[in-house]
Amino acid sequence: MRRRRGFAGVGLVTAVVTVLSGCAVGPNYVKPTVVTPEAYKELDGWKVAEPRDLALRGAWWEAFGDGTLNALETRVSVSNQTLAAAEAAYRQASALVREARAGYFPTATIGVGYTRSRSSSTVTSSGSIATGRAGSPTNFFQLPIDVAWAPDFWGGVRRTVESNQAGAQASAGDLETARLSLQAELGQDYFQLRTLDAERRLLEETVAAFEKSLELTRSRYRGGVASQVDVVQAETQLKTTQAQAIDVTVQRAQLEHAIALLVGQAASTFALPAAPLAALPPAIPLGVPSQLLERRPDVAAAERRVAAANAQIGVALAAFYPSITLSASTGFESSGLTRWLTWPSRFWSAGPGISQTVLDGGLRRAQTEQARAAYDATVATYRQTVLTAFQGVEDNLAALRILENEAGVQDEAVKAAERSVALTTNQYRAGTISYLNVITTQTIALANEVTAVQLLGRRMAASVLLVQALGGGWNVGELPSARAVTERTAPR
Asked: What is the pTM of this model?
């Protein structure tokens, strides 16, 4: 009968612990609402290039059809040190999850102790002064095993784990945001460098044309048809254009160095051969605005931080409840080495402990208010991140649409300028106009051709930025699960 009562008591305690362990104070997480537009405003008046049913992929840069860019982009994920730091930050956040989960389990310690002591001959065991002889030295051997466990009755540990898991997921989102940002930065730098290559080639071709014009002017001067002023003007125009061609190399060198940094290579050992910018912006599938929240890693990271802050409210509220600790200690102790590990030298003790803070000067209340305020801040940050995401898409849609229209007009301006140069040159050869007219039309033509090249570079950069604004082919399904961030694995 007593045994049955004992089993019943143990079962009752177990049931109570199980029920209480299923409780977790604090609000359960609900994803904040955000307002999403039904369509992108800047699509009005601009036809999206076909095919429209394509979707962005992880290697989004392959859509630009540039083998050199493809090779450079793959090196970012392997060798970029900023990305390596972001990956280490994720692993640190994942380790914090496992650190918090350790609170679920008991803590056990084992130790070995030895003490040799001798009592004073002038002090008795009661503390009074004695006049007897000193006691003999004594030995004390101890082998204790201590076990302590604080059951998570109020869910403080669970909320901490929940918070750290969401924080680790946010760190994974930060990692993907950094990856996409670095890849987009590389794409922009690369196309800007190729724009300068095209500009340099254009200037070199113009220099060759101006050299022929200078030779023509000198011939006319020697024949008495042209004045020395025409020769000086032609020389000035040639040298000015040569200087412009040289000046382009300064910015190109800096962009080359920037690309070397992005791919994790010393600028001194990195070089990109010159090549003109010949490609056009590719077709970029947009999807609908409501999908943007699932395609942006920074939005996903901001949402996970809201979840982490929500769990911290539960951690703060758990501090209002009593702390319960179950502890036990056992082992062997003896004054002699030969009897130390014998059965009669065993000892043990066990017992629960409960404590409750009754006065803290408003500390816990302040911590709870702080946690709620932090949650409100993360909600606002999340909504602001969403708004910024839509702004990024709209900005680059507008840039692509407007630059495409501008490029069409600019191409017509280039053709008109080329016809003007041809007509003016023929008139100069006929002797009907001065060389100043030729210089003016050639300068205008060169400026229009440079502008056309720069417009193409800006369109390519805007395409890269639009891909980045759309998430670069990333999807929220790639965010590691709560279980994944708890395991000792690195993200893809």
From this structure: 0.85
- In 76-123, beta strands by DSSP E: 107-110, 113-117
For 283-319, give the secondary structure using H, E and C: CCCCCCHHHHHHHCHHHHHHHHHHHHHHHHHHHHHHC
* Tokens encoding 444: 């205008």
* In contact, 320 and 171? CB cutoff 8 Å: no
Residues in the chain: 492
- For the chain, list the domains and their CATH numbers: 23-105+153-321+362-486 (1.20.1600.10), 108-151+324-355 (2.20.200.10)
Inter-axis angle of helices 228-262 and 67-79, nearest 10: 40
Among 146, 155, 120, 172, which Cα is nearest to 19's? 155
Angstrom CA distances, 432 to 95, 223, 436, 443, stand at 83, 16, 12, 20
Q: Is-contact 288 464, C-beta < 8 A? A: no
pLDDT per residue as tens digits for the range 58-104: 799 999 999 999 999 999 999 999 999 999 999 999 999 999 999 99
* Residue 452 near residue 407 (C-beta atoms within 8 A): yes
